Task: inverse folding
């Protein structure tokens, strides 16, 4: 008698991941969508969306600072992202082109802080700012401390993708550029920078979007005096304004999706390769 061995399909390995997505991603999104498009009695309505842009509704007084919060969050996020990029790109470039054999060990020095508990790191920075004497001094210093905290926390997320992209650049491109008469600066602008664009886009997405919502940093480093959009959503939920908080979270999620979708099209190796080798 012969027994047929049951064939194991690798597709079955996707079941745990699928269940995880349904329980922790799809279901919460469904709940947010439900509250965003229903009133207090569970009736379908677009009033929450309309009130978000008009500032009207029963919670209009609570929403009075909404656009100020959004503007402030956007400004903090833009400044934090630019500073992270200005710091991270030279660091990633130097590490990738260094003659040290163990480049991963050098990169690890910038990644190790991510292993420390997030709240512990923020509290340590808070104590340092208090020791220096710039903690909760004025509105300007609070904004500075918030940006500093964002850069401190998200800098490794900018360094890693840029380094990963630069280290993979074929050195023959740079040699060809020099053979065609390009100096070091021109070769960098025309070859290295275009070929590392995918890493820049990835790093910007990983810094810009979270820094608009990470209210723990702004709350800890400014004694709750600087409010960003993440804190506004949390405040809505804590004050039982589930409809307002849900529609705000849904709009922010839509914005994140649009930005990610628009920037995702830039990650094309063939296109960046062509750009990198066109010297003029």
Result:
């Amino acid at each position: 008698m012969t027994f047929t061995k049951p064939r194991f399909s690798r597709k079955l390995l996707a079941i745990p991941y699928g269940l995880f997505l349904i329980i922790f991603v799809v279901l919460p999104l469904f709940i947010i969508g439900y509250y965003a498009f229903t009133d207090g009695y569970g009736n379908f309505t677009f009033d929450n969306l309309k009130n978000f842009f008009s500032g009207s509704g029963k919670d209009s007084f609570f929403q009075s600072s909404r656009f100020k919060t959004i503007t402030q969050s956007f400004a903090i996020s833009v400044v934090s992202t630019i500073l992270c990029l200005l710091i991270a790109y030279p660091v990633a470039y130097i590490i990738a082109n260094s003659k040290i054999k163990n480049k991963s060990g050098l990169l690890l020095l910038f990644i190790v802080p991510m292993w420390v508990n997030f709240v512990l790191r923020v509290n340590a920075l808070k104590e340092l700012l208090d020791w220096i004497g710039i903690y909760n001094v004025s509105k300007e210093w609070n904004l500075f401390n918030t940006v500093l905290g964002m850069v401190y926390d998200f800098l490794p997320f900018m360094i890693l993708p840029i380094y990963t992209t630069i280290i993979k650049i074929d050195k023959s491109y740079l040699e060809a550029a020099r053979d065609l008469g390009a100096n070091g600066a021109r070769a960098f602008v025309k070859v290295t920078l275009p070929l590392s664009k995918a890493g820049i886009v990835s790093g910007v997405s990983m810094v810009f979007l979270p820094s608009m919502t990470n209210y723990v940093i702004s709350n800890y480093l400014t004694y709750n005096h600087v409010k960003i959009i993440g804190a506004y959503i949390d405040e809505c939920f804590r004050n039982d304004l589930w409809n307002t908080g849900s529609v705000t979270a849904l709009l922010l999620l839509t914005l994140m999706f649009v930005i990610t979708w628009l920037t995702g099209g830039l990650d094309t190796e063939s296109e960046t390769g062509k750009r990198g080798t066109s010297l003029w």
